[in-house]
Amino acid sequence: NIQRKHQLSSLPTMFARVACLGQATLRASASASDCLLFSEQRSVLAASFACTASARSWYSTATNTAGSGGHRINKVYPSAAEAVADIPASSTLLVGGFGLCGIPESLIQALNERDEVRDLTVVSNNAGVDDFGLGLLLQKRQIRRMVSSYVGENRLFEKQYMSGELEVELVPQGTLAERCRAGGAGIPAFYTATGVGTILAGGEFPVKVDSGGEPLLFSEKREVREFNGRQYVMEHAIRGDYSLVKAYKADTRGNLVFRGTARNFNPPMATASRITIAEVEHIVEPGQLAPDEIHLPGIFVHRVVLAESLQKRIEKRTVRSPATEDAEQQQQQPPPPPQSSTASSSTPTSTSSSSATSSATSSATSMSSRERIARRAALEFEDGMYCNLGIGIPTLASNFIPEGIRIELQSENGLLGMGPYPLAEEVDADFINAGKETVTTIPGSSLFHSADSFAMIRGGHVHLTLLGGLQVSQFGDLANWIIPKKMVKGPGGAIDLTASGSRVVVTMDHTAKDGSHKILSQCTLPLTSIGCVDRLITDLAVFDVDPKKGLELIEVAPGLTVDDIKAATGCPFTVSKNLCEMRFA
């Protein structure tokens, strides 16, 4: 070791002599004991090394050999392969990203090339797609267990689970983010209302099934406690062996800057492992990042590697046509999905009551059921609301926001103030919504990571949640995320959103395609949340929901009667004394 008793004045001469031996000899001469440099000596050494390129290289090598975990000044690794070279089989990995946005492509690829690394437990919001991202590790059967919130469109993920090849622990999206954040903050467990009354909290979700789909292993049952008259479940923090994350920019000391909605799960996961490896698009020297632009301090990051692959695939490339741009800029609200680009966004006016009724009836009967539901749902928006819209019909409803109403759309992957779909030339893989569609921002938008996003939701700061359903019960229970043995999409953020205590409006077809009831005395599918629904909008009717009194019919679609609604509904309901024809934006 270089001891304090050594004369600093001799160091420049020593290193000047060493420098002339050549870089290979220098590295061979640099024993581990030579690398423990005192902080007050480093500025002197750096000045001395500046005389030759080889000396600067030696300094970088010396300060990089202090161990695989922390205590490195320069945390940059030469390749993704070297950065993941010591990850053993049976490790627990925390992997950032949302869909394909913000995933560490190069690190995943490098790990995929190490055939001996198997039996992994991977904690990630989802598992990419069949042939990209974590889907590559699934292809080679390197993953034993996935801890995720969403299966999504990854058919291989779903197939391996339902055939018994893969263990899957499904976790509500906000709970997953918070479990990682807690793990990084040294908090062993916490209580949340998310999941109360569900099979996930009750220990009834089959983590592993046999080849016939019969359960072999169930999820852990959660402890339940009551606070202020409400039930909460206890969730344990998540800690990993390694975190693989993606950032836009880093300095050599590991300070990270993220870009767009590619931030998502990356920051909370970066804090929650023994060793965090960050893949980045740009590496700069210390000082080139202003302190207040750093999103994640380098204390959480142990290795940095420059991205070798930047495919940045987009799952749902969604664009708007230039013809609609002017109107969208005036409203600064999300435009319609491409299939509905011609729909009006303003409320029609008329000169007489009778002509209005006739026009509305004619218009309603010509609408598709999707448009009918979406136009009615748009009337739920109130000026100044912060709203979260689910995939499908709820998102379509934003096309019909009445004139004079302005809302802020919150997307749980880390965007508040969601703008319109981009023009074709504006598409950016780092900006997507929770449905994996490409989007833009608007003046006043803000970006944040997933744990902060669900703090907004869980804390009741989002005024309205509009989402779809598979079944709704007489007293407002909702089921919308799984059909046992047939379809496992995962809860995503739905359980968090419906347990927040904010207003919940559900949109869905009144009956299933085979004519069977979807509105029932009790849901037959696993629940998303108990007694969470405040209003139910279908293609046939609108109900208000009281968790004690049940359903009350308040609107009927044009041309239908109360008897028609009774025939299509699988449970009793009352009829409002102010019953009226369904209204549309």
- Work out the strand percent: 15-25%
Averaging pLDDT over every residue, what do you get?
85
Termini, distance in Å? 76 Å
Q: Judging from the principal axes of the Cα atoms, what is the shape? A: globular
User: How many beta-strand segments?
Assistant: 29
Name the structural class: alpha/beta
Number of helices: 17
Query: What ranges have pLDDT less than 50 throughout 5 or more consecutive residues?
Result: 1-68, 330-362
Helix content: 10-25%
Give the neighbour order of strands across the main sheet. Answer: 18-17-16-15-19-24-26-27-28-29
Radius of gyration: 28 Å
The largest sheet, given as strand count, sense and whether it forms a barrel, is: 10 strands, mixed
Structure overview:
- The structure is a single chain.
- The protein has a ten-stranded mixed β-sheet with strand order 18-17-16-15-19-24-26-27-28-29. Strands 1, 2, 3, 4, 5, 11, 12, 13 and 14 form a nine-stranded mixed β-sheet that branches. A three-stranded antiparallel β-sheet has the order 6-10-9.
- The protein has 17 helices and 29 strands.
- With 585 residues, it is of the alpha/beta class.
- The chain is globular, with a radius of gyration of 28 Å.
